[in-house]
Amino acid sequence: MIVSKITLFFIRHSRRLFEVFCNKGVAGSSSAELLATFCDNILKKGGSEKLSDEAIEETLEKVVKLLAYISNKDLFTEFYRKKLAQRLLFDKSANDDHERSILTKLKQQCGGQFTSKMEGMKKYKYELDNKDSTHKLVEVASNLSIHRVPGVALFYTELVHGISPIFTHYVNVPALHLVLVFVSFKYPTISTVLPEKRFLFGRIEHYELGIFRCILRYVYKDSRFE
Question: Family per UniProt (predicted)?
Answer without folding.
Answer: Belongs to the cullin family.
